[in-house]
Specification:
31% of the residues lie in helices and 16% in strands. The longest helix has 16 residues. It binds S-adenosyl-L-homocysteine and iron/sulfur cluster (SF4).
Length: 392
């Protein structure tokens, strides 16, 4: 047990089973679905088969209507419709950037809204999903961190983001489709939208298990990346219980600077973070950890920073993803120049690490990394409040 008090506060987690109203089948684990069907009166002997059939309707075919589940009897479909719902977030607005990036604003229970971004590339299509409304952490360069209201998303709301994106991309298979060999439009998921996924671990885990299940959306664990600001005690569980790829929002090479940029560093400083990464379960299999590093002009982008960075991560199989800072109204930083980013990348590269520079996407619709913040929650923390929290 970590003796330190948790840094997260006042996060409202919706009970997994609503006290009233019908239960949503979306977001239940396979076991949860089985149990729910038995509780609803499905004979024990049939329950496993029924759960398998319903699972496929939900996650392979993308069906939202019990009446379309044609391999179930009419009576059984009626029972399901009386007892359960199939609910995914509602898409409120959909914006398409000049570069093809799509941003969806989706509404969830309680009227809250979160943003989901689809980024098409030549060899893949990545969906950037959110794990919380807002974020309890207050990274000083992140727009989401200025949003006051925070609530954890349910597993249904997390996997539901993938489902509504597949709806929009028209990517559910049609009955009669053979094993479709065409490349997937939605081929990758990154948990890099709003929120800190490791502060909502169980829901993120259950949602990603659904997305990976071979009898459904069936994305490989290698195509899912969870990004964390460095919640050290929860990191190993990412490998053990989800098995997806891990990215760390590193962003600075000294505690002094990281305390200001990523305040959770005060709780788990650089040395502790690196220690946890050295013993990270997947590291022994040489699965690379991505280090995200936002390039902030004059703050963390010097040659000395680059040299320190490669020294710090020595021995960790890593890739360093340099992210040009994306501005948002009132942001206290500026993006490093292209020359500076290139010089930084060169040093990292010469030390033997892959150092791709992330291309900002969807900036014209405020869809780039760190620009997300739901329109209904525009009230900002004051500059003074941010300054007090970060020591800037
Ligand atoms: N809370 C998680 C995941 C969401 S943020 C985390 O912090 O890792 C996803 C990535 O975008 C993180 O690396 C984050 O540091 C980065 N980011 C946040 N604001 C940004 C901005 N304005 N410009 C560029 N990257 C930003
Ligand atoms: Fe939260 Fe990540 Fe933004 Fe930090 S960078 S405030 S952890 S969403």
């Amino acid at each position: 047990m970590d003796a330190k008090a948790p840094i997260t506060q006042d996060v409202l987690t919706i009970p997994r089973k609503a006290a009233d109203g019908p239960l949503n089948l979306v977001g239940l684990t396979r076991v949860g679905l089985l149990e729910a069907l038995i509780e609803a009166g499905t004979p024990q002997k049939q329950a496993k088969m029924r759960a398998g059939q319903i699972w496929q309707w939900l996650y392979h075919w993308g069906v939202r209507d019990f009446d379309k589940m044609t391999n179930l009897s009419k009576d059984y479909r009626a029972l399901l419709a009386r007892t359960f719902v199939i609910a995914v977030p509602e898409v409120v607005t959909r914006q398409v950037s000049e570069d093809g990036t799509r941003k969806y604003l989706v509404r969830i229970a309680g009227g809250h809204e979160v943003e989901v971004v689809y980024i098409p590339e030549t060899d893949r299509g990545t969906l950037c999903i959110s794990s919380q409304v807002g974020c309890t952490l207050t990274c000083s360069f992140c727009h989401t961190g200025t949003q006051k209201l925070v609530r954890n998303l349910t597993a249904a709301e997390i996997v539901g983001q993938v489902m509504v994106a597949r709806d929009d991309l028209d990517e559910w298979p049609q009955p009669g489709d053979r094993n479709n060999a065409a490349p997937r439009l939605l081929s990758n998921i990154v948990l890099m939208g709003m929120g800190e996924p490791l502060y909502n671990f169980e829901n993120v885990r259950d949602a990603m298990k659904i997305a990976m299940d071979p009898e459904g959306i069936a994305l490989s664990r290698r195509r899912i990346t969870l990004s964390t600001s460095g919640v050290v005690p929860e990191m190993a569980r990412t490998a053990e219980e989800i098995g997806c790829q891990l990215a760390i929002s590193f962003h600075a090479t000294t505690d002094e600077v990281r305390d200001k940029l990523v305040p959770i560093n005060k709780r788990w400083p650089v040395v502790e973070l690196l220690e946890a990464l050295r013993s990270y379960p997947k590291v022994s299999n040489s699965e690379r950890i991505t280090f995200e590093y936002v390039m902030l002009d004059g703050v963390n982008d010097s040659d000395a920073d680059a040299h320190r960075l490669v020294k710090l991560i020595e021995g960790i199989p890593a890739k360093i993803n340099l992210i040009p800072f994306n501005e948002w109204p009132g942001a206290p930083y500026q993006r490093s120049s292209n020359n500076r980013i290139r010089a930084f990348a060169d040093i990292v590269h010469r030390a033997g690490y892959s150092s791709p520079v992330r291309k900002p996407r969807g900036e014209d619709i405020m869809a780039a990394c760190g620009q997300l913040k739901s329109a209904t929650e525009r009230q900002r923390k004051s500059r003074a409040q941010i300054a007090a929290e970060t020591g800037l």
